[in-house]
Amino acid sequence: MTVEIMEYMVWVIEVAAQEFFGGDKNITYNTLKNSGLWDIYVEHYDVQHTLGKEYLVEEMREYFRTKGVGLRC
Prior knowledge:
- The protein has 5 helices and no strands.
- By secondary structure, the chain is an all-alpha fold.
- Helix 1 packs across helix 2 and helix 1 packs across helix 5 (53-67).
- The chain is globular.
């Protein structure tokens, strides 16, 4: 994994933690890894990193809803 992708994933964790998991970055990381979103964002970094925070949040919300992932928000 490149430094650019790792920096992006740190940002993704921070955004998701604040939006969905009460700021808990450990739970956020585990949820992203276990749900498959981590791999999707890493694999599609070239496109994903150009999208804004609002798009990312809505995409996660829909993904979590369809996969039945429990959220803290």
